[in-house]
């Protein structure tokens, strides 16, 4: 499953209100709950925080990919958020993250999860696309950028 297939208006939040790493995670998990994509907010949060305890998922170039495996989803699920001002996510480059891709996958699913992570890594190499996504003013605009790629 390609990243573009996971990004839809109902799972994109612009702008994120959160100003801390735990708050970003909570806000994006709530987006998934509101979209009917997960069954239990607390279990999803626990899984993500346990994964983050192993090492930050803040990458470089303003991208963070908090993710975990949990039985609160039946298939690979994604929420995307944009924080124009950026949030400290303990990124590899020490800079604030502006683009957040929160992914949840069921425990027995690896292939699509790995493919989506690879797609995000590929996306991170396009500075123009990252800048366009970070400057987006609506979920519709984000979805259009993904479908234009």
Q: Overall pLDDT, averaged? A: 90
Pattern of helices and strands: HEHHEEEEHHH
Principal-axes shape call: globular
Please bin the fraction of helical residues. 40-55%
Count the beta strands: 5
Structural class: alpha/beta
| Radius of gyration, whole Å | 14 Å
User: Largest sheet, described in full?
Assistant: 5 strands, mixed
How much beta, percentage-wise?
15-25%
Terminal CA distance reads: 16 Å
Q: Please count the helical segments.
A: 6
| Uncertain spans | none
List keywords for this structure.
alpha/beta; globular; 6 helices; single chain; 5 strands
Write a compact overview of the structure shown.
This protein has 149 residues and is an alpha/beta fold. Helices cover 44% and strands 18% of the residues. The chain has six helices and five strands, in the order αβααββββααα.
């Amino acid at each position: 499953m390609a990243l573009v297939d996971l990004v839809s208006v109902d799972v994109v939040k612009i702008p994120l209100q959160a100003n801390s790493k735990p708050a970003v995670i909570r806000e994006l998990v709530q987006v998934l709950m509101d979209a009917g994509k997960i069954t239990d907010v607390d279990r999803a949060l626990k899984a993500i925080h346990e994964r983050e305890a192993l090492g930050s998922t803040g990458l470089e170039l303003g991208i963070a990919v908090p993710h975990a495996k949990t039985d609160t989803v039946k298939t690979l699920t994604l929420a995307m958020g944009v924080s124009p001002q950026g949030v400290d996510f303990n990124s590899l480059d020490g800079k604030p993250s502006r683009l957040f891709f929160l992914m949840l996958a069921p425990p027995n699913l690896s292939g699509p999860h790995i493919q989506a992570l690879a797609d995000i890594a590929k996306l991170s190499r396009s500075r123009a696309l990252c800048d366009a996504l970070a400057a987006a003013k609506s979920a519709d605009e984000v979805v259009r950028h993904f479908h234009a790629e």
